[in-house]
Specification:
Number of domains: 1
CATH superfamily: Bira Bifunctional Protein, Domain 2
CATH class: Alpha Beta
Number of strands: 14
Distance between the termini: 40 Å
Shape: globular
CATH topology: BirA Bifunctional Protein, domain 2
Radius of gyration: 19 Å
Amino acid sequence: MASESLLDEGSLMSPTDGSHPSHDPKGQRHGPLQTPVPQAGMLIMFSQPVPYDEAWALQKHLQEERIAGRQGDILLLLEHSPVYTLGRTTQPSHWDCGEKVLRRTGASLQSVDRGGSITYHGPGQVVGYPILKLSHYCSGPKQYVQKLEDVLIQTLRRWGIAGYRVERKPGVWVRWNDVDTKIAAIGVRIDHGVTIHGFALNVDLDLSPFSHIMPCGLAQCQITSMAEIFQSAISPSVVAQQVAEEFARIFNIQWVSLPPDIMGQEHHDHHLTSTFPLHT
């Protein structure tokens, strides 16, 4: 049976990172701890919005290859064509406006097997799908989500935006209009020790589709974006590169060149823009 771990929106977050101090039974002293050698990872970035079903098929293919040990760890960074995704904890009350209303926004609907409830993805939102061997980086799913939050918080900090956590509500929040407002969502799944799904950071997108749903299943959840905070346009591609840099630093990954046959040719045609190493 496949091992499975889901982290839903609203799961309890551990305040610790899961690490433990080293213990020497002989009481011997050691010198300064050395920085661990970075894991090798491949970065794949896309220049145009990718339909959700295409990205999902790619994720599943890459996860299967990672589980089988035929490839290394990968981070996909992209934007989606407009889509509402319904996670495992979605309830009818989270989108009681009905399917016709949602489709009137021009977005498709997709049921997914990640943790969490309904959310919206669209152009101008940086979406990250890490396909990682979890044990190489974290003690478990909760620490993994904390690290994803750290990536997003540090990316926002580059722009002078103070992102933070809210207890029992995975994702990243900012103080906007005097209330806790969500700027990034996280929903993940782990099969056979390999991660799938990931995070979404609102950079510069139309926020109106969120008004038709209860985002992440949270009542009266306010949503914002980096562009709304700055009241000016922000390039998602610039932010995506910063996310990749922070991800490499926090997960201790060294981006390496992508083998030319890592994906089927259909994914190379017009969406794939960058597979080269990103030096931080």
